[in-house]
Design a protein that fits this description.
246 residues; five-stranded mixed beta sheet; alpha/beta
Length: 246
């Protein structure tokens, strides 16, 4: 009897040695049945993999319902229908360019204020700068300021000339109040832009510049948008006049 038992045990051991582990695991493992339906959407399986904090951010599957063709969709709310467009043509900014010509020599200083009417923007006057008219509005010289003879070319005369011209420009910007309590009427419109044009190297050149940069020109300094030097320079030409020797 013992011999029979030993032969059965040895045969079972040899059989276990010949059988691979993978086949034994598959034969012994119980069959698992999945309870989830086979027709579940891919979005639901992807959401189950995400943590609980990110599951709310997964996009919902598109609904099968489509909007009815009889109900039109509106992009704007009902309050947008009460908007009234603004009339920008009536709110156009007034454009009145002026030019201050500073003619300064060693004998005199002459300031001339001119106006170029008929333009509504800086681009229009730039296109027709050559043919644009310059109407004189005010002018001051050393003689009209009260200086005669050689005194018209001094620095003091140039300062007085520049102060009188600054006062004339201030009257155009803010007309003075008359005796009746009303502002005086001016012939020219209020300047919105001022260009200073220098010509010559006399003492009046520095006098006008210092007057504009000082306290006297504080009210009209913001109007200056451009400064131009139109002093003619001689290149070649005829022989210069002999220098005077004293």
């Amino acid at each position: 009897m013992s011999s029979v038992v030993n032969s059965i045990a040895s045969s079972s051991r040899s059989l276990l040695r010949r059988t691979p582990l993978a086949s034994r695991a598959l034969s012994t493992a119980p069959e698992q049945t999945s309870s989830a339906p086979t027709s579940a959407p891919a979005a639901a399986s992807a959401a189950s993999i995400l943590p609980a904090a990110f599951r709310s951010q997964t996009p919902n599957p598109p609904s099968s319902t489509t909007p009815s063709s009889t109900t039109p969709t509106t992009r704007f709310s009902s309050s947008a229908s009460t908007y009234v467009p603004t009339n920008f043509s009536s709110a156009r900014r007034e454009y009145n360019p002026y030019k201050l010509h500073v003619f300064s020599t060693r004998n005199n200083t002459i300031l001339t204020l001119t106006h170029t009417p008929g333009f509504t923007s800086p681009t229009s006057i730039a296109d027709q700068a050559s043919s644009a008219p310059h109407n004189p509005v005010a002018w001051v010289s050393g003689g009209s300021a009260g200086y005669k003879g050689a005194a018209r070319g001094t620095y003091d005369a140039a300062v007085e000339v520049s102060l009188r011209m600054i006062k004339k420009v201030e009257e155009l910007v803010d007309p003075p109040i008359g005796s009746g309590g009303q502002k005086r009427k001016v012939k020219s419109p209020a300047p919105t832009e001022l260009e200073v044009i220098w010509k010559g190297f006399g003492q009046g050149r520095d006098a006008v510049f210092r007057s504009l940069m000082g306290g006297e020109g504080e009210k009209i300094r913001h109007l200056v948008k451009r400064v131009t030097d139109a002093t003619p320079l001689k290149i070649g030409g005829t022989r210069a006049k002999k220098r005077r020797v004293i």
